[in-house]
């Protein structure tokens, strides 16, 4: 964390994560005031700078659990005012330094350790460094659903920007692993009804086209694994919208379920959201008998 020069190819992220998993959440809460005072040092190897895109600070993975308010109350956790002011100071010189400050302040904000003025300053700092393409803060390595939980200056920006990623990106061109995983996690961590009927149709279309593309080569060792990820992503979207989809989306899913089943890919985890409708059950039966 505070050692500047590290060996090339040193797996800092894995080491940090494994070390922190050996420490109880109780102990980490007790140590928080002290840990917040640690120096911010951008790590470099012999070959390159570990910049904001892949550098890691201990607070990127400090707590393994949520809902630790009781422990914070038990230990009467307070952070030195000077430390908070240091973190809030808008004098960062790199994306890594900015991200490290923001991630530390994020923890303090989540556990109500910032006053109203400090919270407002944190929000300003958070939105002072954004990606031009996404208009979201440069928190490299964070899943998209996290942006929906961050405080904002304009509440429309996070949702519009996050939704835009799924609506405009093509799964085949993007990393399919990333798109489908991001989508599944977003649905699990946002309120029901996050996606409207038109959004669902666009996403179902994208996943359907992606699956037909990979189904052209069922001998590929990753075919079954990637198909399952597609099925889980569809199930997550349908759960989020409570199965309220357009007739066009329903028709796409009927055909997709039939063809997936023919290739040994079972779709029960997304069928269940539609099978509440007897018409869907009759449609599937009709397709299978046709």
What does the model show?
- There is one protein chain.
- With 290 residues, this protein is mostly helical.
- Helices cover 57% and strands 0% of the residues.
- The chain has helices at residues 12-21, 25-35, 69-74, 81-88, 95-110, 116-126, 144-147, 156-168, 176-189, 197-214, 223-240, 247-262, 268-274, 278-289.
- Helix 5 (95-110) packs antiparallel against helix 6.
- The radius of gyration is 23 Å and the shape is elongated.
Number of DSSP strands? 0
**Main pleated sheet:** none
Span from first to last CA? 63 Å
Fraction in beta strands: under 5%
The chain-level mean pLDDT equals 83
Range of helix content: 55-70%
Summarize the SSE layout with pairings:
Layout: H1 12-21, H2 25-35, H3 69-74, H4 81-88, H5 95-110, H6 116-126, H7 144-147, H8 156-168, H9 176-189, H10 197-214, H11 223-240, H12 247-262, H13 268-274, H14 278-289
Q: Any descriptors?
A:
elongated, mainly alpha, about 290 residues
Quickly describe the structure:
The chain has 14 helices and no strands. The chain has helices spanning 12-21, 25-35, 69-74, 81-88, 95-110, 116-126, 144-147, 156-168, 176-189, 197-214, 223-240, 247-262, 268-274, 278-289.
């Amino acid at each position: 964390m505070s050692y500047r020069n590290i060996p090339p190819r040193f797996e800092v992220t894995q080491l940090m994560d494994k070390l922190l998993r050996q420490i109880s959440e109780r102990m980490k809460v007790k140590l928080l005031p002290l840990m917040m005072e640690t120096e911010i040092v951008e790590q470099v190897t012999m070959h390159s700078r570990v910049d904001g895109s892949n550098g890691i600070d201990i607070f990127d993975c400090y707590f393994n659990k949520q809902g630790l308010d009781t422990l914070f109350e038990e230990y009467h956790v307070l952070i030195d005012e000077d430390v908070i002011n240091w973190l809030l100071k808008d004098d960062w010189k790199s994306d890594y330094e900015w991200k490290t400050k923001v991630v530390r302040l994020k923890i303090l904000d989540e556990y109500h350790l910032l006053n109203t003025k400090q919270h407002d300053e944190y929000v300003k700092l958070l939105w002072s460094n954004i990606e031009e393409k996404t208009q979201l803060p440069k928190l490299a390595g964070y899943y998209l659903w996290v942006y929906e939980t961050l405080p904002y200056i304009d509440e429309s920006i996070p949702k519009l920007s996050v939704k835009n990623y799924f609506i405009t990106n093509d799964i085949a061109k993007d990393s399919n692993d990333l798109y489908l995983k991001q989508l599944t996690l977003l649905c699990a961590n946002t309120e029901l009804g996050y996606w409207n009927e038109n959004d669902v149709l666009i996403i179902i279309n994208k996943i359907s086209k992606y699956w037909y593309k990979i189904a052209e080569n069922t001998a590929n060792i990753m075919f079954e694994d990637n198909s399952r990820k597609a099925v889980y992503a569809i199930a997550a979207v349908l759960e989020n919208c409570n199965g309220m989809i357009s007739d066009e989306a329903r028709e796409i899913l009927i055909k997709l379920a039939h063809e997936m089943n023919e290739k040994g890919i079972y779709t029960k985890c997304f069928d269940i959201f539609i099978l509440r409708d007897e018409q869907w059950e009759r449609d599937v039966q009709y397709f299978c008998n046709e």
